[in-house]
Amino acid sequence: MADFATFVLKNVLVVSLAVNMCLIWKISFEDEQTLAFSWENIRQKLHFHGCCSNGEESNGIGKDAHVSTATQILATTSSGAAPFVTDGGEGVVINLDHGDPTMYEHFWKQKGQETTVVTSSWQHISYFSDIKNVCWFLEPGLMSAITRLHKVVGNAVTEGRHIVVGTGSSQLYQAALFALSPHNASRPMNVVSAAPFYSSYPLMTDYLRSGLHKWAGDANEFSKQEPYIELVTSPNNPDGFTRQNVVKGNKGILVHDLAYYWPQYTPILLPADYDIMLFTVSKSTGHAGTRIGIDSSKRKYLHLGFILKCHSWALVKDREIAKKMTTFIEINTIGVSKDSQIRAAKILQAISDSCDHANQKDAETFFDYSYKLMAQRWKEIREAVKKTKLFSLPNFPQETCTFSGRTFGQLPAFAWLRCEGEVDDCESFLRRNKILTRGGKHFGGSTKYVRISMLSRENEFKLLIQRLPAIIS
Ligand SMILES: Cc1ncc(COP(=O)(O)O)c(C=O)c1O
Questions:
Q1: Among 109, 165, 181, 419, which one is most buried in terms of CB atoms within 10 A?
Q2: Pairing of strands 435-436, 399-400
Q3: What cofactor is needed (predicted)?
């Protein structure tokens, strides 16, 4: 009897062990699937919605990017990520949707130690950087590097300005809207920009459904007798033109987004002198962001990291506005990463140093390098477009740059390409030819236009130049 009981007990144990193993395996398998799925979701969002590089909205290319399993996508996200091209490039999808400034990577690689920052674990521990400053989390080293660079380039007045630092100019944009919208108004503040406008503005304005402000569209069509904020992007994203404010009313506040007011993109004519000016290292030096991996607490998925963005800054005339912008960032992220600020300061100082010593050293300055590269790329894309009747590009007036002494027309970070003739949906047309771009409608413009990034790595750009003239239909 005792033997029989032991036999039954053993069997029950074995069965129970098997059931438990199955359960454990099932849970862990599902967990991994869920995690893998959510990672894939996040990866797609970050990659295809462009928020890792510039926070711009998606144009729904995620699904279309996977054209076929045999098709390769020439990724822009990392130098190691570009797949090996085996077929002369015809099968490769070229992704030029985002303005990811990887073209500058080569220059910075050559700099090596000169721009390397080493940080010990005991450094940068405090929340505070300079409690006497309106922007108390602004590192003094970054403040002097920003001031010095604007002086060297001559692109903005810094005297009598407060510098507010942000995690990307997207955060500063929201800080400016927060600071400029009355908090006791019966209606939200109107936010406008002349079309074609930077595709992130509507998104960033309305994303949190704030009661303080709302996107009110194309500034050219704004005729309400109500207060408004007008965003003036100059040179403009997406079309590259120099801009002024357009709304005729007298109830407006202007915010100047000068992300591209640097001498590789446009002749610098005079130091910008506006009430609120936004700048970013994303487009000036090309340091759009550094992703770091953190343990997301779920075992091996180490890549679900946060984005450690390099910095943008606002030059703000009014102390109260600067204070409110600082409050926004305080509530939002309790300041801005010091490690990133110190890295940004080092890079900006290196650029100023090289400009100061330009005549004594053989080494090329960053702005010389980036100007020559942009000029070469624009020459090549214009030649490629000339070979076909299907497309056209805007032309820009020539002006003399006070920084370099060179006379040239704009060399925008994006090509605002028009599909001529019958083609009404230029984005889909190019997508069929495996070139991913952002269609005009995302910028409040016509679908006959697309925006193509000019800031990619050389291999992607070269493929674009080969492919454009080869397109027949
Ligand atoms: C006009 C304009 N402003 C701001 C930004 C975003 O800059 P950041 O990367 O600093 O958020 C971009 C990026 O594409 C831009 O085109």
A1: 165
A2: unpaired
A3: pyridoxal 5'-phosphate
Count other Cβ atoms within 10 Å, centred on residue 85.
Answer: 14
- What's the gap between Cα 314 and its chain centre? 16
Closest ligand 1 atom to Cα of 173: 4
232 bridge partner residues: 256
Question: Is the Cβ atom of 414 under 6 angstroms away from ligand 1?
Answer: no
The pTM is what?
Answer: 0.81
Distance 53 CA to ligand 1 centre (A): 8
Ligand 1 atom with the smallest distance to the CA of 312 is: 10
pLDDT digits (tens, 9 = 90+) for 102-142: 999 999 888 888 888 888 989 998 999 999 999 999 999 99
Q: Looking at residue 88, what is its pLDDT?
A: 55
The H or E element that residue 4 is part of is helix 2-48
Of the candidates 334, 348, 318, 395, the one whose C-alpha atom is nearest the C-alpha of residue 155 is 348
Q: Please spell the DSSP secondary structure of 136-199, one letter per residue.
A: TTS-HHHHHHHHHHHHHHT-B--TT-EEEEEEHHHHHHHHHHHHHS-TT-SSPEEEEEPSS--T
What span, in angstroms and rounded, lies between the C-alpha atoms of 163 and 165? 6
In the 8-state DSSP scheme, what is residue 414?
A: E
Ligand 1: nearest atom to the Cα of 236: 1
Q: What is the whole-number distance in angstroms between the Cα of residue 169 and the centre of ligand 1? A: 6
Question: pLDDT tens digits, residue range 416-473?
Answer: 999 999 999 999 999 999 999 999 999 999 999 999 999 999 999 999 999 999 998 6
404-441: string of b/e by CB count within 10 Å (b at 16+)?
A: beeebbbbbbbbbbbbeeebebbbebbbeebbbbbbbe
Buried b (16+ CB within 10 A) or exposed e, 335-346: bbbbbbbbbbbb
At 384, list the tokens.
Answer: 């490629």
Phi, psi of 154 (to 5 degrees): 75, 30
Residues 195-206 pLDDT 10s: 999 999 999 999
Decide: 101 and 288 in contact? Cβ < 8 Å.
yes
Rounded to the nearest angstrom, the distance between the alpha carbon of 313 and the centre of ligand 1 is: 11
